Fold this sequence. Notes:
By secondary structure, this protein is of the alpha+beta class. It has helices at residues 80-84, 122-131, 149-158, 180-195, 208-225, 232-245, 289-304, 378-394, 398-405, and strands at residues 2-5, 15-21, 28-29, 34-40, 43-48, 53-58, 65-67, 71-76, 94-100, 103-108, 114-115, 118-119, 198-206, 251-254, 257-260, 266-268, 270-272, 275-277, 280-281, 318-321, 341-345, 349-355, 358-372. The chain has 2 domains: 1-90, CATH 2.40.50.100; 182-405, Chloramphenicol Acetyltransferase. Helix 6 (232-245) packs across helix 7 and helix 6 crosses helix 8 (378-394).
Amino acid sequence: MGTVVMPRLGETVTEGTVIRWLKREGENVGRDEMIVEISTDKVDTEISSADSGVVRKILVAEGDTVAAGTELALIGEKDQAAAEEPKRHESGPKVFELSLDKVESETSGRKGPRREHGFLSPIVRKMANEKQVDLNSIDGTGQDGRITKNDILKKIAAKPALVQAEPQTGKREERQPLSRIRKVISEHMVRSVKTSAHVTTVIEVDMENIEQVRKRYKAAFKQREGFSLTYLPFVSQATIAALQRWPRINSVLDGDDLIIKHYVNLGIAVSVPDGLIVPVIKQADEQNILGLARAIRRLAEKTRSGQLSPDDVHEGTFTITNPGSFGSLFQTPIINQPQVAILSLDAVTERPVAKDSAIALRHMVYLSFSYDHRVNDGAIAGQFLQDIKEQLETRDYEEELETWLGA
Length: 407
């Protein structure tokens, strides 16, 4: 008799939550067939059975969280009738897909619904129904034009992150259950507010220096890299440098001890349908602006296409959130536990300001900084923000960009 166990999905992931069983007790399961959907923090994945047979007993209920290595189910041998079943279908058509994370394959069995793009797996149909995706609007990338799980994820990622529900005629109220990701966010945010003594301070930064650099190099950067040079890599680099000079902000409170990190694993909040996920740039302090821009782009694409690994969202030491991309001028962010601070980059807007005893149009931004008052005080917070401000307003980026872009 074989077993299905909770895997260790990465170096830092030691437990997982059973989201949904794809097979029930008494049902047949093939070797490498997906049997259960699990969640680790904000990342979902499916695991397969290492043995073919019958699901004899499910040991962990949906919704339960268990440690890596825990037995989830017992797989026994098929009875004789079940063993002979495949022989009666050896000449039958292909019927369903087995989703192996990013790779999808076919096997033989019972007939299923056919469409223009080929057969639809149960996972694809379920995702399409839950996310209200029009399958006829998708060109499948699987074999013979089949629609795969990744095709659905890409379609979802292409939708606006903030979706307003359509009002239903005749209904003054509507009850909608929270999605799983909103439940996770809710739990994390409430825990953070209850854990940390939140204080928010704000500084105004003149981004004209950055704006002029972006204007000068945006065409060359876009041609070379294939994406636009935004404000975020500049703010990220300035923040990383400031964290190294003010290391108490890059720390974790463990009981009565403060664990100060002398490296920076930078979390960047990425908007996804119905929520936010914070993938982490590991060893971000070793990156220049170009490296940060590439890393931010790569992780954002992985997030929105559903390809993050559990390790991609763990071990962050500091987080930057970027609501300015949606036009936000000012917000008070909640700390991403167990970190002790978070920075919010809001919208960069052109507005008249006093400059050298005159009124001038400048590109300005508010940086909002929430910190845990148990660990740091206003003096450190203010100096940390002033550090970031000075870099952004006075640093000479011309030589760096000319060297990288060959301008």
